[in-house]
Amino acid sequence: MRERTIRTARVLTRLRFDATGGFDALVQQRLAGRPLTRELHFDRAPELVAGTGAGNMYCPSCRRIRCCDPVRLPGLADAVAATHDAGAAGGTLHMCLSCFYHFLTPEVSESRLLEIGEALARLGDAGGAPRNVIRFPRRRR
Ligand SMILES: [Zn+2]
User: Fold this and answer.
1) How many other C-beta atoms can be found within 10 angstroms of the C-beta atom of residue 121?
2) Distance (Å) from CA 140 to ligand 1 centroid
3) Average pLDDT rounded to a whole number, residues 110-132
């Protein structure tokens, strides 16, 4: 049986290929300070899996933009809450489809993003930002 190991900054994933073109992925990492081990099955080749997914986002383990899928893990909210990481507790769990690293993305409200954008735009007005950046649109009041 063919095997392959993927090691990125924060995860160790062992792939075991089956005869039908799919594979099992044994994922070992830490999540919210706790060890996380998952065994996943995919019915396609890793190269095909890596190219699918709900969206592109930054994988903290690959340290690149990758296709990632949201993941539901029963009991995760309790485990994260137990670490007293309030920011992470309100987040969404995602899995990178290249290295299979699981990571939490915080939920940020649209109004908070606008506040940050406006603050950055003000910094630009003060001459702090380079002229070649795309200006953040101002909110009409
Ligand atoms: Zn990754």
Assistant:
1) 16
2) 39
3) 76
